[in-house]
Amino acid sequence: MADKLKKGDKVEWETSQGTTSGTVKKKLTKPTDIKGHHVAASADNPEYLVESDKTGAQAAHKPDALKKSKK
């Protein structure tokens, strides 16, 4: 999935409350901090910054945790 996601893509992921949807904001390819949480992303191990449709909160997710939304 890593090469198939790009900025603006609608995605879904699982949380303890169920399936959540949001939008890919950018691909992270270097270590960064998001709201005090360190994200160990790299070119070989990228993560995606996504924004929740419901709350507007942003978080980093590994490519395997995301799937393109059918909506």
**Strand percentage:** over 45%
* Alpha-carbon distance between the two ends: 18 Å
For the largest beta-sheet, the strand count, sense and barrel status come to: 5 strands, antiparallel
Q: What's the mean pLDDT score? A: 92
Order of helices and strands: EEEEEEE
Walk me through the structure.
The chain has 71 residues and is an all-beta fold. Helices cover 0% and strands 49% of the residues. The protein contains no helices and seven strands. The chain has strands at residues 10-15, 18-28, 32-34, 37-39, 47-52, 58-61, 67-68. The chain has a five-stranded antiparallel beta sheet with strand order 6-5-2-1-7, with no helix packed on it. The chain has a two-stranded antiparallel ribbon with strand order 3-4. The protein is globular. The two termini are 18 Å apart. The model has no long low-confidence stretch (mean pLDDT 92).
